Amino acid sequence: MDRVILHSDINSCYASVERLYKPELEGKPFAVCGSQEMRHGIVLAKDDAAKRAGVKTGMAIRQLCPELEVVEPHFERYAKYSAMVREIYAEYTDLCEPFGIDESWLDITNCLACPDPVKTADEIRRRVRAETGLTVSVGVSWNKVLAKLGSDYKKPDAVTVIDREHFKSMVWGLPASDMLMVGRSTRRELARMGIQTI
Known catalytic residues? Predict the structure, then answer.
């Protein structure tokens, strides 16, 4: 029997938490940045509107347009909401592996309370939204790498299944950089070898 792995990712975690405290940011492009007084910190997170405007994590504040709302980080808030979300995960399985503050793998392979993985993933998604005000995207697959690809496949607030029947058509054409642990240097090395896709 295949393992059943979920990967749940809090969508735009820092920015989403800040929006809970500042509802006036709704609909406005904004970024969570460090050292905004000096305007030489970097973007730690951005909302979807800022992302569409070309703002990227790691950009220097001085590169940003002056109209963009800049919000200082509150790491204690992010830790608090991360813990709240993980408490929800713990109700489904004790095999929960955090991956940073905003992502976790959940192994529900032998979970009698989770006979339908897709329904379980959707229930988790709906509960996180109802109980915390945040959204998550959840990938469902038989291993961690593909489950993470699933959570990145469709955002925000979505469930994506990558199963054995469809994984080739869903995954093989994606850029190699979409795969877990393929960063800039690995992507460059793969490209040098002529490998562009997964």
Answer: 103
* DSSP result, the chain: ----EEEEEETTHHHHHHHHH-GGGTTS-EEEES-TTTT-SBEEEE-HHHHHTT--TT-BGGGS-TTSEEE---HHHHHHHHHHHHHHHHTT-S-EEE-SSSEEEEE-TT-TT-S-HHHHHHHHHHHHHHHHS--EEEEEESSHHHHHHHHHHS-SS-EEE--TTTHHHHHTTSBGGGSTT--HHHHHHHHHTT--B-
Per-residue pLDDT of the chain (198 residues; tens, 9 = 90+): 689 999 999 999 999 999 999 999 988 888 898 865 655 578 888 888 888 878 888 888 767 767 788 889 999 999 999 999 999 999 999 999 999 999 999 999 988 888 999 999 999 999 999 999 999 999 999 999 999 999 999 999 999 999 999 999 999 999 999 999 999 999 999 999 999 999
- pTM value? 0.90
